[in-house]
Amino acid sequence: MATLTQVPNVKLLINGELIDSKSTQWRNVINPATQQVLAHVPFTTPDEMQAAVDAAKAAFKTWRKTAIGTRARIFLKYQQLIRENMAELAALLTAEQGKTLADAEGDIFRGLEVVEHAANIGNLQMGEIANNVASGVDTYTLNQPLGVCAGITPFNFPAMIPLWMFPMAIACGNTFILKPSEQDPMVTMRLAELAMQAGVPPGVLNVVHGGEDIVNAICDHPDIKAVSFVGSTRVGTHVYNRATLAGKRAQCMMGAKNHAIVLPDANKEQTLNNLAGAAFGAAGQRCMALSVVILVGEANQWVPDLLDRARSLKINAGAEANTDIGPVISCTAKERVESLIAQGIAEGATLVLDGRAPQVPGYEHGNFVGPTVFTGVKPGMRVYEEEIFGPVLCIMRADTLADAIAIINANPNGNGTALFTQSGAAARTFEEDIDVGQIGINVPIPVPVPLFSFTGSRASKLGDLGPYGKQVIQFYTQTKTITARWFDDSVSAGKVNTTISL
Ligand code: NAD
Predict the structure, then answer these.
(1) Ligand 1 contact, 456 CB (< 6 A)
(2) Which atom belonging to ligand 1 lies closest to the Cα atom of 236?
């Protein structure tokens, strides 16, 4: 284990320089499998925050006019660098976040897809033109960058979610201030370094660290034009209110309680494998984790088979081979998950698989919780009402598809959902009637590829436009609409026109 003096400090990135913060407030970045302190991360001071905004504002003057092809080529280079450094990035991510190495590569890869998309920005940012809206008059639009934009990201996807944000914002011609999660900022920092190596100019991407104070400073700063947030509903609602009150654009992707419905005609083997992976994979710390399963009719007999699959999952440190479930992010997170399990028992749900206090040889101090399953879960119980964000699956029952859809639509969250069936008619009813952003039909975690945008309904999202894909081009640009007439000197001037017309 490293001694205190050997532990590195996480740097700030301001105006192209990696600098040591002058902050007096720091926190530890901890390996959740071992409790080893990996780094110290600063709470950025107000002066450092101002320096980051000044750098981004100054860089915007030239970056906004940099040729489309020049901007795009940086992202072509960047995707190549991410690929070349994949193993190192994944190892760093696993060390500070806990997920398995395969999952860490998936986290990076889903972000890499957005970088590839950013390299195609020329097609996406084009305006429109209508020729001859009046005689000799054309109307056309310019989709121009906004200025300094900011992103605030959660701990659970420290590669993918920062990459949802800054590549698209920067490719559109904006400059950016990123505030990663203070729980696992190291892989995000490494990705920022690679972006500089790929040719992102000084000041175009800046990274600051911290928690509540720095987030509030981002929301309030008059020179920041737009804020993208991904995280919990409580914090995201605060960010949305505070940032929009300060006149900014805001998009907040927030918490979840994702339900799957299983109809008795579903392919049993595929469905049970998908459910176990989506409920317990990444230790349940995915915003798209399936944490509630509604079994319809005869599908209720599949519970013992589902438990067999849950029991077969291997709990170990994410860096160890063949691990299925790593630790949760912190001791606090582990205690919270365990207390919600205790509450579920107290409120009358039946604990059919108890994952508390698993034995993990060699990692006795890790924040491990094994797969946990409740049956007989009802609305009103805390295990149902709260996002547990751990490997805990709540099983409910319904008599019909319509009853199951009604349960989901009555839940406040609308992030993701999935239906397992072989019936096209049932699938069509489901997609028509369900009020949820991401819908999977025999697909357990339907995170859209960047040709589309991530979305969300009700308490899972605030703001009209989602991250990445086509929608985020609108979010990160201001449309100007130009109506133009060019006089031909060879044609004699007409008389003065005082009516409102072209
Ligand atoms: P979080 O809300 O605690 O933290 C998110 C960010 O907000 C972090 O950068 C953190 O530093 C900052 N923050 C924390 N407390 C704050 C406060 N009081 N005031 C201002 N800023 C504060 O979320 P988390 O625990 O890091 O991430 C897990 C949550 O994120 C879950 O709810 C999960 O569902 C959600 N999430 C949603 C999506 C989505 O796309 N909808 C994706 C990933 C994660």
Answers:
(1) yes
(2) 2
Spell out the domain ranges in the chain.
12-254+469-482, 259-441
Q: Does residue 34 have its Cβ closer than 6 Å to ligand 1?
A: no
**Spatial distance between the Cα atoms of 104 and 87, rounded to a whole number of angstroms:** 9
Residue nearest to atom 28 of ligand 1 (CA): 231
pLDDT digits (tens, 9 = 90+) for 133-183: 999 999 999 999 999 999 999 999 999 999 999 999 999 999 999 999 999
From 141, 204, 140, 197, select the one nearest 171 (Cα to Cα): 204
Q: Of all protein residues, whose CA lies closest to atom 16 belonging to ligand 1?
A: 212
Any ligand 1 atom below 6 A from CB of 215: yes
pTM of the model as a whole = 0.96
Q: Which atom of ligand 1 is nearest to the CA of 387?
A: 32
Catalytic-labelled residue, pool 172, 219, 287, 394: 287
User: CATH number of the domain at 259-441, out of 3.40.605.10, 3.90.1150.10, 1.10.3210.10, 3.40.309.10?
Assistant: 3.40.309.10
Burial class (CB in 10 A: 0-12, 13-18, 19+), 162: buried
Please state which of the four CATH numbers 3.40.605.10, 3.30.1360.40, 3.40.50.2300, 3.30.300.30 is assigned to the domain occupying 12-254+469-482: 3.40.605.10
pLDDT tens string 406-439: 999 999 999 999 999 999 999 999 999 999 999 9
Q: Is 235 in the pocket of ligand 1 (CB under 6 A)?
A: yes
Contact criterion met (CB below 8 Å) for 454 and 469? yes
Smallest CA-to-CA distance from 299 within 410, 423, 385 is with 423
Torsions phi, psi for 372 (to 5 deg): -130, 135
